[in-house]
Structure formats: C-alpha cells, structure tokens
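The freezer alarm interrupted the setup, so I double-checked each line after restarting. Inputs confirmed:
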Amino acid sequence: MEKIFGNFIDGKINEEGDKIKMISPSDGSTAGYCMETGRDATDYAVNSSLNALDKISKINLKERQKLLLKLADIIESKSEIYSNYESLNTGKTIRQSSFMDIPLGIEHIRYFGTVQDFRESREIEHPEYPGTRGIIQYVPMGTVAAIAPWNVPFLMAIWKVIPALLAGNSVVLKPSHYTPLTALELARDIKNAGFPDGSVNVISGKGKTTGNYLIENEKINMISFTGSTYTGKLVMEKAAKNLKKITLELGGKSPNIVFDDADIDRSVKGVLFGIYLNSGQLCESGSRLILSNKIRDKFMERMKYYLSNMVAGNPMDFNTDISAITNNDQLKKINNLMESGINEGATVYYSRDLKNKVPENGFYYPPTLLMDVKPDMKIFNEEIFGPVLSVTTFDTDNEAVEIANNTKYGLAAGIWTGDLNRAYRVASNILAGTVWINDYHLLSAAAPRGGFKMSGIGRELGLEGIYEFTQTRHLFYGNPDSGLSDAAYQLLIKE
Ligand code: NAD
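Predicted 3D structure, all chains:
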C-alpha cells in the first residue's frame, strides 16, 4: 500500500478527500499520494490560520525568533528525512538536497531567527508640525496565501513561511502538487517548535483548483506567489478582484556574460554550475551564455570536457551529478523549445548522451550546449527551465550588455571578468534583481531577491522580504501646546 501524505491543517494531519498520485521523476515509480484539496478544506485551512493570528500576536518578536531557532534545530536533527523527501519528489540529486537545499534552508531560518534590523515600529517627527510625534508600526498583513512551484520546494516554503511568521502573520501554503512532501513535514515541525496550531497550514492540490480557491477566499489578505510569468499574470488578475496585496517571483532567462579577461577555468565551472545545477530548473538559471568571441573556442572545449565527465545515474545515488526533470510536462516543454531552436538555425555543439545511464522510466533531458543562438529566436527569449545552455557571442562590452538586456525578463545575471571596475560598470547597467560577479547561484538570506520587468513584483528574503509581509500604520500624536492645530481648525471653526 503506497503512502498517503495528508494535508496539515490546524495542527493535525488530514487525509480525507481526493488524492493525487505522485510520480518519482528518478525512475517513474509511485512516490505516494497527496491531497487534491477541495474548496471546503481550503476554506477550513484559511479559517484555522485566521484564528491563529490572535495567538501569534501574543508571542512577541523575540519569542518568535526563539521558536524559529528551535525549528532550525529540529529540522537539522532530521535533515536526512528532508533530503530524501526532497529528492524523491523532485528528482534532484540526493547530493544537492543533502549539501545544498536542506542545509541552506536551515541557515535561512537561522538568519530570520537572529536578524536584529527588523523593527515592528519606528518613531518619526513631522517636519510640518513641530512638537508632534509619529510612530510607524509595521503590522502583519494577516492571513497570507503562499503558492509555490516544484523546483526547490523546501527553500521555497522557507522563504515564504518563515519571514511571514517572523512578521506576525499566519500562512496557508500550497506547494506544487508534484512536490508537497518537505512543505508538509515543515508544517509539522513548525508546530513541534511551539507555534500555535494554524500558524502554518499546508494544503496540496493543483493550481486551477486549490490555488484558485485560495486566491478567491476573501479572508486572505496577501498572496505570495512564485511560479511562471504566465501564471503570475493570472494570479494578479484574480487578486485584483479583492484587492489583495501580491508579491510575484516569476520566470527568467538569465545571461552569464564572460569577458576575455576572465579566469577561464573558474568561469567555465561557474557557467556550468549556473545552468546545469538542478538540471536548469531554477528560476535564475543562467540559460544564456554571452561569450567573448576572443575566447570562444577554448571556452566551449573546456565546457564540453567538464560536461562529458559529469556522472549520470539515479539521482538517489550519492555519486550522481545530473538531476532528473521533475515532471513529464516540463520534459515536453524542453523538447518543444529545443525543437524550435533547431528549426530556427541553432546548432548543437554538444549533448551529453544519457542512454542506458539513467533509470529507464525516469524523466531526463541530456545536458546540452547550443551554439549560434540569435536574439530573434524563440529559444533565446523563452524560459526553457531545463539543462540547455544557449550560446551567443559578442565583441564589445556595450554589445554584451545590449544582448544581456534584450529580454522581457530581469531576474538575475552573471559577469565573469578579472577587472572589478569593468564588472561594476557592466553590472550597474544590467536590468536584473541579482547580478553575480565571478560567481553564480549563491543565495543569501540577507539579500533581497526578485525580478525586474516580467520576472516579478516585490522581493523575497532580506529585510525587504520581511517588510513585504507587513503594512504600515501611522500613529500621529498631536501637541495641544504648539498652537498649530488651533490655527488649522480656524480654517473651518470660528470661536
Ligand atoms: P506554475 O506557474 O505552473 O505553478 C506555480 C504554482 O502556482 C503551483 O503551486 C501551481 O499549482 C500554482 N498555479 C498554477 N496555476 C494556477 C492558477 N491558475 N491559480 C492559482 N495557482 C496556480 O510554475 P511551475 O511550473 O510550478 O514552476 C516553474 C516556474 O516557476 C518557472 O517559470 C520558474 O522560473 C518559476 N520560479 C520562479 C522563482 C523566483 O523566485 N522568481 C523561483 C522558482 C521558480
């Protein structure tokens, strides 16, 4: 009998209702069943979170931080369980889950558990009214709906739930129906750490049903959404009906610019890490290489060398380097976009043969280097979310910046050069929320992340990410002795 992973609502596991079968992308086997949450159960979860708000407000900020640190310890003590769930669900290598996604998530919880700069209020003076005083309060938004994609489900849950809790909100989180396991475990551990029941409810289900029910619920005050730009627009449209606050973390087509003065070996490794980590299924994956013509041949050869040495196999094996594709629909999207690239004139420089190397019924796409990609091609413009690096070459710095910015997206970018002045100059002209210089993919909980242009609205992580989960209330303390208000009242009221 395959395992059922029930919802976690109001401090209890809930297994009643329709189920969705989860397939393990590594080998096509059944990973278990999660819930297809209906409207009634969604409303129940929202009501439970609404009821929790009062209890959360009685735990002061310092105490909430202590609970977060306890949560980090609990997760650390069972990090093997989390890593196994994460890889079983997503098909990412167990090495990546064990050494990156889970430990990084734990560190991020600790950041929010210790951050000192977030204040629940601050005092101001009103320059127009000397002697009066103001207090700006950062009040929780209330009950937040968090909707997350399938590529980094644990980190995604942390980035949404933890800062929201820190700021005093309660959350109903809907992970992707492909990958709910670590989010469900997290909800249980949040209870175990001492947060009141209902502080975080996790309900699984598809976007068109459960996701929609959440957005339509009038008791939800804010939607923190991460997913594709296409869905983000739908969410924004729907949220407008009840004027809910939204943050949108959306897709990308991020450039990695390599100049001729870059350290070749380090930048080759960085560019490969930028695109092939998680088999390209990261929103900020560096899917466009913008390469100096002066070093083109040497660079391509070196990339091919490292790529041909990556170990293909079952991602649950600690030796494997190449992750699976998390679901079959995504695999089809990659195939379609690749086909269009070839039809439009791009050429395959190298494609890693995975035949007989990976489990037969799993979902895999060969890591591929694609040359001769031009800005008017679909593959240059559309997010592929797969292990395909599109290569375009340049001659001058200005040309490199122009190619990098020639996209509707603006999530991230990388710059590789030995000249830090050049790096600063170029980075300051890149229209993206994160620019790595001689590095890629390294995320810090202290740094806000998010998109320019079609890559999103609002920020996640950092102080900015915490304040997103608040609204301000201004308290104005009048000063009867100043005489100013008396003068103002006389505009209307004669003695
Ligand atoms: P998706 O947009 O299909 O789904 C994201 C979430 O929205 C899922 O939980 C899904 O069930 C839900 N959803 C789908 N349709 C909905 C609807 N009509 N109403 C309400 N909810 C709905 O995205 P995906 O395929 O799960 O994830 C891949 C995408 O996520 C990529 O575009 C990637 O770039 C993006 N992403 C962005 C970031 C970021 O921080 N910017 C991070 C990770 C992934």
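Quick read of the result. The radius of gyration is 25 Å.
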